[in-house]
Amino acid sequence: MTHPPYADRLVRLRQRMSETATDMVVLGPSSHMMWLSGVNPHGDERPVMLMVSQNHAGFLMPRLNADAARQATDLPFHCWSDDEGPDAALAALLADCSATDAGLSVVLDETMRADFALRVLDAMDCPERRFTDDTVGLLRAMKDTAEYDALKAAHLLNDAAVVEAFSSLEEGMTEWDVQAILHEHYKVNGATPEFTIVGFGANGAFPHHHTGDTKLTRDMAVLIDTGCRLNGYPSDMTRCGWFGTPKAEYEQVFKVVEAAVQAAVAASKPGVRASEIDRAARDTITAAGYGPQFLHRTGHGLGIDIHEPPYITATSDVELRAGNVFSIEPGIYLKDRFGVRLEEIVILREDGAEILSEMPRTMQRS
């Protein structure tokens, strides 16, 4: 393959396929395809797939997209045009992958269009199919050095944007005004906005508040949850503060959420189940009397996608591995008053969790 990261990932995938007795992996236009090959084709109703077996890797590719996709990979294309349809090209690709026998073990991209997946299954002889959890998904969840470097750079840029946003707070400005400050910082520094939540006052009690026209007044809580995308990888962080003199109740809630973050970070080690990290955060908040006000999971994985496995939930038995990247973001939400959420993105090292952000979690004051 043209680029060394993708060649290495293909080797690792084939090794994992051998370990899991997988005969073939089939990916559609998705983050999985982008991670494995660097190809990010236009996704529409025309079937596009990357198929990998031990003896072959190649694309089913609409002819009108081939030249653009060729810039990212030197893997072979089985092209088809609108006037002939994809069936012959698909059959040729399956033959090259030695995928014509009955009962083969096939991994399908769970994010692929259903009609693409069914087209592959219908063209095969009684395949046994599953999704990517123990192959591509598992490998994607363990970030390599290049991915770490990209994620770290995105988070350092995000740090600077959030610092600027809090330092720019003025009475009378709207949530949209703060969002504009963040987005301009991203753009000036070569990044694009990924998402932004700015919640003033009681709006912070909605975990997924839509940034709006609420105006900032004295003695009001401020929550900023935001991220940018730099060199293909996103950042994600939440910081909270108070515009004016914070109420004692806010300070108390802030301390509880900070203790929950610390507990979850301390629990984050290779070999620990995701549910144990969630429990560390949730037990801290419950012990302080705010259990019902912690409304969501403790975290989500982050990589090419802003939300991807592993998910840090109370019901997840996934055993975490070195290289996993995920958020730790407990929160307490008091309706009609305020919300406090503090979020870090961590990468698991052999000795524990490394936090990607370098911005302190201390209460921001204006």
Please characterize this protein's 3D structure.
It is a single chain. The chain is α+β, with helices and mostly antiparallel strands and 366 residues long. It folds into two domains: 4-141, Creatinase/prolidase N-terminal domain (Creatine Amidinohydrolase, Chain A, domain 1); 145-365, Alpha-Beta Complex (Creatine Amidinohydrolase). Helix content is 35%, strand content 23%. The chain is built from ten helices and 18 strands. It has helices at residues 4-19, 31-37, 63-70, 87-96, 114-123, 136-141, 145-167, 175-188, 248-267, 274-287, and strands spanning 24-27, 49-52, 57-62, 77-80, 105-108, 128-130, 192-200, 220-230, 233-234, 237-243, 299-301, 308-312, 325-328, 331-334, 338-341, 344-349, 352-355, 364-365. The strands form five sheets. It has a six-stranded mixed sheet. Strands 7, 8, 9, 10 and 18 form a five-stranded mixed sheet that branches. Helix 7 crosses helix 8 and helix 9 packs antiparallel against helix 10 (274-287). The mean pLDDT is 97.
